[in-house]
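Run: sequence + heme C -> complex structure.
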Amino acid sequence: MSVIKKIPVILSGISAGLLGSLFIVNSAFANTKANDSSQADGSIHHVSATVCKTCHKETYKQWKGSMHANSTAFNDPIHGTFYRKVVGDPGKEGVTMKNGKYPVCLQCHAPNAAKDKVTKLDSKPAYAEGVNCIACHTLKKYNGIDGKNGKLNLGIKAYEYTDKIQGTGRNSNHLLNALTAMGDEFGFTDGDDDKKPNPHLGKPVTVDGKDIPALPMESNPKQLRTSDACMGCHDKRNNAHGVPLCATGDEYIESQAKADCLSCHMPTTGSKSDHSMGGGHSLPMLQRSVVFSMESKKDGNTIKSVITIQNKQPHTMPTGAPFRNLHMKVMAYDKTGNVVWENAKGHPGKTDKQAYMHMVLVDDKGKPTAPPTAKGQGADNRLKAFETRELFYDIPAKDIVLVRAELYYNLLWPGLVKKFGDKIPADVTAPKLISTSENAL
Ligand code: HEC
Ligand code: HEC
Ligand code: HEC
Ligand code: HEC
Ligand code: HEC
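>> structure
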């Protein structure tokens, strides 16, 4: 065995054809040898992302920093807080929703565990990894989320899935190669200048001393190169009372946009697509989300300021979870830099309603409530897809030399920050400044 493991060290200088046949070890051996818990035990959905990391280093790094890799109750403090409240302990087997059913959350937040109907998410790395490589790359066909009798088929239930890695068509059309070269194919993977043996041709391989199970692949650009890759988990979700909690996909369809999710969320560099997939947790993504500008003119004793916010996205801003929100501060300064006027003291939610852009969920009596208990949707003044909105301010001109507007994004409503502040780290709940605009007078 040790002979096989040393081979990669002497890779350079030997013909790829010869090495190809050396790398491809007997399939039975490789499968029984795979005793590392991060490796396959025969089921593709138990294959950990660390297996893919061996060759796809850059992609792994991007994914690891994404919310997909942090989507379970163990890694995401916001999801974790809600999950523990409405479901229970993510480290326990057999927890259920209040209605006694398997937790619907896991169909999107821990899809590999949902395939096995397991709720103890630390019992396998592939469960605890949440939306990992395999979770997306084994989705074969999107069937839509509308099930029978008005029920929603959410997350993995919206898909047919398979035990073969689904590829984009760029490097996944191997049938001719297999016919002519009988599997001695190597390929370049990211973060590496050395050619690697390709486990996607259907045989296990050994690389850098690590046994890699066979990871057969087929080309499926219809699934991988369109919004179908995302919609099962991102179209919409209702709470137990049928109230929509998020509807990114519906918003997108209504916008009639032609560019799919991937064009913004998976930009390419070289021949690789970025797997960071930023959203509300990503400051650079948030900074690109809107065009924010102010124009101010002195008119007698008044400064007339017009603030324009243009939503560049084919979905609501903010989109996603119902508690995402924006708030805006407008301040006027004298020549020593003191604030002489502002649109609101502190948060504008009560005194300058147009400057607090959010959706309200309400109970039976129309009172604001949390997502699990909502019976209906209340006011919603978030920016619609592609909307351009103007906000007007009249500011007393005396002593004022500068007007400044600041736009903030918040993952949670202020009320939830207060309620869960002790459970969620302050840097997660802190308002994020995403845009500013200044006018000198
Ligand atoms: C032993 C190295 C190795 C491992 C481990 C590995 N791959 Fe690959 N992968 C390759 C090579 C080589 C290619 C072909 C790249 C080329 O030729 O440029 C490739 C290509 C791909 C492609 C691209 C297909 C396309 O359409 O362009 C996908 C998707 C992929 N791998 C997914 C995975 C996933 C998911 C895992 C983990 C379950 C994984 N790979 C593990 C070596 C590896
Ligand atoms: C198997 C389900 C699933 C699929 C498929 C999926 N996602 Fe996600 N995605 C999630 C979950 C769950 C989260 C939330 C993680 C959290 O915040 O706990 C998420 C979060 C996100 C976020 C928010 C990141 C942030 O900063 O808050 C973006 C953006 C995103 N996904 C884009 C995509 C795109 C684009 C696709 C298609 C290529 C896709 N997703 C496919 C389940 C999925
Ligand atoms: C949220 C779903 C999702 C997750 C998670 C995911 N991928 Fe992908 N991946 C895609 C989609 C969609 C594409 C196709 C993008 C395109 O071509 O527009 C893709 C493309 C690829 C490719 C083709 C080359 C490229 O960069 O375009 C490789 C290789 C790959 N993924 C490997 C991985 C590995 C390794 C992981 C885990 C570390 C992973 N993917 C996790 C959805 C995902
Ligand atoms: C024109 C570029 C663009 C397109 C196309 C696009 N998005 Fe976004 N998306 C963004 C930007 C910018 C953000 C960050 C601001 C925000 O949260 O709205 C974002 C945020 C998100 C979030 C984060 C929500 C959260 O709660 O953190 C999700 C989820 C998402 N998009 C999913 C999708 C899906 C699914 C599609 C396709 C149906 C899509 N996006 C199409 C630009 C785009
Ligand atoms: C249809 C798939 C789906 C289901 C089912 C689902 N979620 Fe999510 N959830 C997502 C996606 C996608 C995101 C991230 C993007 C967004 O904000 O829409 C998310 C985000 C969240 C967030 C915000 C996380 C953060 O980091 O801010 C919480 C909290 C949450 N979900 C809780 C739950 C709970 C609890 C359940 C089960 C009762 C559940 N979700 C069921 C797809 C789903």
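>> summary
The longest helix spans residues 77-86. The two ends are 77 Å apart (CA to CA).
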